[in-house]
Amino acid sequence: MWGVDIVFKNLRLQTKIFFLVSTVVIVSFALLTIIVSNRAFEMARRDAFSLAEETADKYENEIRAELQGARITSETLASVFEVLKAHDITDRDTMNDILKHTLSKKEYITAFCVAYDPDALDGKDSLYAGMKPAYDETGRYIPYWNKLGGNIDVEPLYDVDIADWYIVPKTERHEYITDPYPYEVQGHSVMLASFIFPIIQNDKFIGIVASDIVLDKLQEMVSKVIPHEQGGYTEIFSNAGAVVAHPDKPYLGKDLTEALAGTPRARYASAIKDAIQNGKPYIMADSDFYTVYNPIQFSEVTKPWSVAVSIPMSKVLSNANGIRDYAIAMSVAATCVIALILFLIAKSVTKPIILLSNAAEILGGGNFDTEVPLIKSNDEIGALSRALRLMVFELKNAMTAAMAANRAKSLFLANMSHEIRTPLNAIIGLTSLLLKTRMDDKQHDYAEKMQRTSSTLLGLVDDILDFSKADAGDMELKCVPFDIKALFDDLAIFFQKQTSESGLSLNFDIEGALPDALMGDPLRLRQIFINLLNNAFKFTEKGSITVRAFVMERYQSGIAGDDIKLGFAVEDTGIGIGKKQLKGIFAVFNQADNSSTRKYGGVGIGLAITRQMVKLMGGQISVASKEGKGTTFSFSCPFTLAAKTKTQDSVADEAMDAAESEDENAILKGMRVLLVEDNEINAMIAEDLLSSVGIEVTGAVNGHEALERLSEARQRGDTPFDLVLMDLQMPVMDGYEATEIIKKTPEYRDIPVYALTAHAFPEEKMRCLSLGMEDHLVKPIDLGKFYKALRDVALTKANNN
After folding, report:
1. Torsion-angle region of residue 422: left (phi > 0), alpha (psi -120 to 50) or beta?
2. What does 651-681 look like in DSSP terms, one character per residue?
3. CA atoms in the 13 A half-sphere facing the CB of 572
4. Mean pLDDT across 557-569
5. In Å, what is the CA distance from 131 to each residue of 98, 153, 381?
6. Around 681, how many Cα atoms within 13 Å sit in the side-chain half-sphere?
């Protein structure tokens, strides 16, 4: 396919047009031929089905008429014997005379058999015991009257109670037709079938009457029938799929599967038998015959037979093949004529296009001094020629202006960076020194505001320079090992003050499968999150901001050195962005509100830089928003797994110092807390915060280990833990399952369990409380709320004691 594509690309335009249009014409005629042929074949098959169905209906009626006499005779005799029994006229000689006389009058019936349950006829079986030939040793009334040998003779039946022709009518209480079976009659083998009717007295089964019929006439019928004189043939099958009648006598009595063995129809044998047994029609078409199987139903309760009519497929499709050949011949002739016309048209149309194409190729190489040919015509090609000449003229002027503007921009950015950074660095440095001197509260407040404003201005300058580097392709990425979970901890601390002042909830939803150590540029990734979070805080007045991180794809085995793709999202519940403004949200210097009365400041460069950084890191970024509901920025980046790194968090020490200065936390001294946390850094921070106020901390990295710590403490007889701080997402056993076990264990159920998690949504808090947890604390830790919750536990314990 690749080679064909290369050849096609190297063809001349005239050849391409001729080839493409000719292909469309050829395909169109081919489809038309296929449609016409399929339609002809469908009509031929429909005609064949109608013919086969008509023939099947004809022989169905003849077969039913052939067998109906035996059925009616059996039914009549059963009714007679029921009447005799009802009037207590059960003289066996009389009944035998009736059977013998009736058999002599019915030419199409070979035999009658009557079988009563033991002593069900007259209760006198013992009186007739051993009286042959009509009775066996028991004297039971079970005579078999037949015309074997040309005379009407009788003999007793044997093994009646195990025969299906006796068991089925006795059990089902309705008529029954046996499957045809071969039988020796007057020196030659014939196919017989029996119609059996039950004899019912006072709603109780007492016996059966059966008529045996020779199926020679059915065999004679199918041997002489050639449907529509087209070389077809007819078959008759019993309900079980046995061959009742067939043009070839060796098939008689064989199972349908055996009869079809070695033919193309063998693969349909199972489906055909299912259709016959369920009394449903079946249509089968193969390379040789078109066959219709029609059910023959003798009564509502008897199992159906089936008559099959087969018509040679060559006869069925002869007319359709003629139509197909004619359609192909006409299509080929029409295609040749159209191809010649197309060649002449393509040659005249493509000449001016080729001239323009050659000129455009030269222009594409950067030679704008080339003269574009002027095509003097009023059609689309002439218009294209004039437009291309005008475009080249305008392009020359635009390139000249763009080059000059680019040189001016580069010079401007370089000068502005130097001129703004020089005094700005001095302002920031002096402000930092000023904050270390003694000032009154008002002066200190002014200095802090000056420092924050200067930092904001410096960040804006850095953003402009970063964008300039990215736009020019000069921005470079580092590739160093870093702990991505530590990066999120840093972000939580970085925005802690902004979170407190704004009253918003900053949540981190970090998937447990996220690897700790990655190779990449952590500074650029941190800058992306800072830009997105600043944007979220800026446009969110109430509610929450959520940072999500999850694994999107692992490319190989997931070990060090392999690649992984991570997905990130920053969601807020802010004012949202309208559909119109959403389209250009990542454009440089673009804002959702560009009016002079806009409420929110900024120059609109942060998102443009963010997109450039994500793109540089090999990822993609997108945004989804709804006005009044909030905005979600989503992006993905590939990383390489690295060996696990260790990071330190100095902020925990700072928070610990703040906690130690609070005298009210003295009540916490001596408390025993079980800390269940799988993240090493989070565990370290929490342990430092707890230890700093005198709390004894026991650690566990998952729910299973927490249960072991509780069990060990109980076995040692130690003072029970005063509190369990439980993370939720952990390997081996999560916090949900561990809490359920704790609350169901009598020895632990009174120990309060507090969730300590990054999941801050209300529904998550409800789930924790429903499991029996006493409280729900959110990461990043709010020190005031954290220590207050611990003091509540200590006060409850003191009051109980």
Report:
1. alpha
2. HHHHHHHHHHT-GGGGGGTT-EEEEE---HH
3. 22
4. 72
5. 19, 15, 115
6. 22
Peptide bond before 133: cis, by omega within 30 degrees of 0?
yes
Contact yes or no for 646/567 (Cβ under 8 A) = no
- Residue 645 has a CB neighbour count (10 Å cut-off) of 13
Q: What is the pLDDT of residues 657-670, one digit of tens each?
A: 444 445 788 888 88
From first CA to last CA, the distance across the chain in angstroms is 85
Higher pLDDT, 761 or 97: 97
Helices (H), 289-317: 313-316
Q: What is the DSSP letter of 242?
A: B
Q: How far apart are CA 768 and CA 743, in angstroms?
A: 12
Considering only CA atoms, which of 576, 583, 585 is closest in space to residue 539? 576
In the numeric block, which tokens belong to residue 791?
A: 């003091």
d(CA 540, CA 271): 68
DSSP annotation string for 365-425 = TT-TTPPPP----SSHHHHHHHHHHHHHHHHHHHHHHHHHHHHHHHHHHHHHHHHHHHHHH
Cβ neighbors of 74 (< 8 A, separation 6 or more) are 175, 195, 196, 197, 209, 210, 211
Answer yes or no: are the C-beta atoms of 774 and 753 closer than 8 Å. yes
On the question of a cis peptide bond just before residue 780, with omega within 30 degrees of 0, the verdict is yes
Question: In sequence order, what are the residues at sequence separation of 6 or more whose Cβ sits closer than 8 angstroms to the Cβ of residue 330?
Answer: none
Q: How many whole angstroms separate alpha carbon 546 and alpha carbon 571?
A: 5
CA angle 411, 416, 421 (to 5 degrees): 140
Dist. CA 795–CA 752, nearest whole Å: 13
What's the rounded Cα separation, in Å, for the pair 359 and 608?
38
The answer to whether the beta carbons of residues 704 and 732 sit under 8 Å apart is yes
Say how far apart CA 194 and CA 144 lie, in whole Å.
13
Q: Residue type for 338, please?
A: I
Q: Are 726 and 755 in contact (CB under 8 A)?
A: yes
Integer CA distances (angstroms), 45 to 50, 264, 482, 780, in order? 9, 18, 73, 77
Token pair belonging to 84: 């005799």
454 is written with which tokens? 């200067």
DSSP classification of residue 781: P
| Tens digits of residue pLDDT in 257-304 | 888 888 877 888 889 989 988 989 888 877 777 788 888 887 888 888
Query: What HEC string does 160-217 produce?
Result: HHHCHHHHHHHHHCCCEECCCEEEEECCEEEEEEEEEEEEEECCEEEEEEEEEEECHH
Residue type, 369: D
Burial class (CB in 10 A: 0-12, 13-18, 19+), 462: middle
Nearest residue to 760 (alpha-carbon basis) of 784, 787, 728, 719: 728
Amino acid, res. 607: L
Each residue of 730-775: pLDDT tens digit? 899 999 999 999 999 988 888 999 998 877 566 788 899 999 999 9
